[in-house]
Each structure stands twice: as C-alpha cells, then as structure tokens.
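Hey,
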Amino acid sequence: MALSLYVDTERWRAHQQTVLRQFPGLVPVCKGNGYGFGHERLAEEVTRFGSDVIAVGTTYEAARMKDWFSGDLLVLTPFRRGEEPVPLPDRAIRTVSSVDGVNALVGARVVIEVMSSMKRHGVLEEDLGKLRTAIDDVRLEGFAIHLPLDRTDGTDAVEEVIGWMDRLRAARLPLETMFVSHLGPEEFTRLQQQFPQTRFRARIGTRLWLGDHEATRYRGSVLDVTRVVRGDRFGYRQQKAPGDGWLVVVAGGTSHGVGLEAPKAMHGMTSRAKGVARAGLATVNRNLSPFVWSGKQRWFAEPPHMQVSILFVPEDAAEPKVGDELVAILRHTTTQYDRLVDI
C-alpha cells in the first residue's frame, strides 16, 4: 500500500515534445526533488529526447546527476568563494554572478548571470568593464538572465532582455549564447528573430515537466477503515469524531510532503478571503486534506502522521474499502512518492 504517482507516459512525453518545439535549444531543468519525478527519472527523459545539457540546482545535485546523465551539467546556484568543494567532471558548468566569482574560477566553464528585475543575484551594469578582462581566464559558455514570473508593473520581459543585450554589446562582451528563464514561446521567438547571431537557450522546468496537469496524478491507498459515531474519541490526541462516519487511514503523510504547503502569493480580495477562512478553520482543528473521496476533498481527522493520514469521511458518502485509492491533490515539488507507475 503506497502513495503512488501515476504518469500517463504517452501524454506526458507528447507535452514534452510540444515544449521542445516551442523552445529550440531548450535546457531542461532538474532540481530539488526532480519536480516530483526524481532526478534519475528526469535524466532518463532528457537522454531520451536528446538534450546535450541538463540544469540542476546545486553542486550536490550535479554530483548525483553525473552518474545518470552523460551530457553537460549546468549548476544554477551561483559559485561563491569558500563554498564546500564538490568533485565534479569537466562537463560541469558553473553559474557565476559576480566578477569576483569569475576571477576565482580560472580555467572553469562558466555561465555569467546578469542582474535582472528579480534583484536576486547577478553582475551589475557598472561591473561589465571589469568583466571584460576577467573572462579571458575562464571558458565562457554564455550569459544568463533570470526573469520574474509576474510583471505587475506592466513592463515587457523581452525589452528587459534586449536592454541587457545592448549593455553587454556596448561593453564589447561576446553574445554567442544567452540563457533565459520565464519567457513564453512568442517572447522567445521575438528575441531570436531580433538577435539572429545569438543563440538563445531557455532554461525550463515547470512548463516542461508539469505543464500538462492531466498527465499525472497522485493516489493514496486506503490501509484501514474504522466505523465511528459522533463523540467517539480517537487518535493520538483523543479528539472526538465530529459526526457519524468512518476514520480512513490512507497512505501519505508528512514524510511524503502531505500537510506541508509552500506559502502562496495572494492577489485580490477573493484569494485573501479564502486564506483568512482557512486560517480560521485551522484554529478549531479543521484542516482540509489533499485526498478526494466521492468527489470531495475530505477533512483530516487529525494532523497527518509521518507516513499515513487519517481522514474523516461522513456517513452520507460511500464507505471506502481497504485497497481503494484516493486521488491526492499534491504539489509535485514538495511531494515524495513511494512508487511511480507508468500507465
């Protein structure tokens, strides 16, 4: 009995091909938990569609990925002096976001990231002159710009990239390759048409692996079902059953990521009102689980355990049976499955 990730493999791969056609030269990103699929599985997929490079988050991920993928390994986290050295093959490419970082990586393959409106990290415009001398001592693979997902001020993502292209050109820096993130297909095409001498390479993870929501589904197996009546005490904290129905033990707990939720950016009064409502329910131990039964998300009977969750299913719903599977609405990037099933 397990928390399973079911993958409609044919549909999933058809979506991959659509994205690959939209972004020629795409750099597939495999970081974190491998977008819910795991690093090894994504390495297999990247090898299958023939990319020459894969992007990972950290040097530690690159050290694992080198055994599963034979192409280049682009590390997205910028190099910092004093970081723990991790043995990597020559096919590893380090992202650098400062002139000091470039100076410290003599002989290394590097991608230099420039500071975008994200304001997270990157080389500043005033440092481009120093950069022109520093790149003589490294093997420059290109420049990169990491753009925000939302542009609430109405600015144009393409114009931001063009601005940096103009700055780099004015500083007499080579523009053979530019790595970009968070552009749409039309925006990507506009850039390539405007700068035909530069090869643009889109670094893409979420759109590539998770863009077709119907291609994947989590399901948790029912392990036990116990009949309760209103007021029965149960569980670690001996709470009272809120009504007549069933306590359903389902595979999937905190070790899988169930009950763990990343903070959300809220826009508008509706989403804020929903957030307030959820918080209010939580104060009286009412927390909606990600598990669906009889067409509805069911309430946690108590906080999820390490490997299982206990749900309350009221008697007006169908009685779950041991061995049934409940669809689980889970975020891929925070979920660890027990098994992956290709269908």
